[in-house]
Batch of 2 targets.
Target 1
Amino acid sequence: LDAVRFGIQIGDVDIETMGVLLAAPGSLPPAASGTREPVIKGSGAQLYGLNASWHILPLLNVELTGLARVARDPVPGWLTPSNTFVIDGRISGDRRGFRYAVEGAYELGKLASYGVNRDIGAFALAARAGLETKLPLHLTFEVEGAYASGDDGDPSSKQKRFDPILPDTHTTLGPMSFFA
């Protein structure tokens, strides 16, 4: 991965941006048939991100995140040509042993699937709250829950499951992959 990242703090607001080159622009190597012309030319794949956090109070932090993955040929085998955008919002806090967080994410865009470009419309919600006591070993009580939309598998309808922005795939099963 070739990437650049920049962050700045302005008062109670933290802002971070990033840009990542997932697959270099150019062309795929010549076909196995012996032709000398590139098979596919394209802009490659990139990932862009923006995150802003506002620390209003210890019990009130607001965070907004946006990710955009633009994947064009040539792409590696683990990445599907697509335009994928994720918008995420989070409210959280931590004060005197009480912690909570509520988060929601929505993914939209288009994904190449079964010879057509499929629209994506996936969402997820998550929440958690916990209380750390002053009992021995700092006994903590916590509750959490999450929900994510799923897909019915119909290739002609809108995809409702998340398309991984940066999938964690292993082409060979090494020791770390085996244990993971």
Target 2
Amino acid sequence: AAPARAETPDVPGGDIFGFTDATDTGAPGDKGVSLEWTGSFGKGAGNYRAQVLKTELGITPAENLFTAFSFFTTRHNIGGHPDIADINRTAFDGVSGEVMYRILPRSLGYPFAASTALEPRYATVDGTTGTSVQQYSVEAKLFVDTVLVPDRLYAAFNANFAWARQRDRLPGAPWVEGSGTNLSGSLSYQLSPQVFIGGEVRYLAAFSGGWLDRFAGDALFLGPHKFIAITDKAAVIASAQALAD
């Protein structure tokens, strides 16, 4: 009899790494809807809550190619903050499109896979203050993942660069450019075929210039994440991160 053909250990599909993305693009013909909620709380003195809901419609039209269209809703509740005007409102916050392509498939001789993505976006709300703006941005992304222990332990790394151009919706308001980077690493442990738990670290840096010039600040975040597959097509993902001192 012919010897059994060895299979390449793979990283399971889905958001098993929290905020860090895997390289999976799905199988041709796959379609889906995902909801991603993020929130920021307690920004200095006073009351500060900023929340964003991203609704993504995704499809895999061909092997190693994923495309998506998303729209955003924001909620800001800010009061008594020394640097930000009081605001309490929910608003539509624009749209984005994304194209993701797996540039390096995994193989027996090479355990790493890599994908790249580009996501242009039009926004109507300033993410920090909640005020009305016009914003055009684009984010370039690199995703890498690997199997550390087959059917048990997985790792992923992301490196993102974002550019944005924005102005307030006031007569004569000037355009302002900014940029930023987002580096993240995550481990995910498989408790069962349906449940994954892990930890993640993210480093964010912001610049007041459009090309990573004029450094404006940075932050390091740490936290756990959990992924629970309800069915083959539905899952619940929870990720919480705190600012590291």
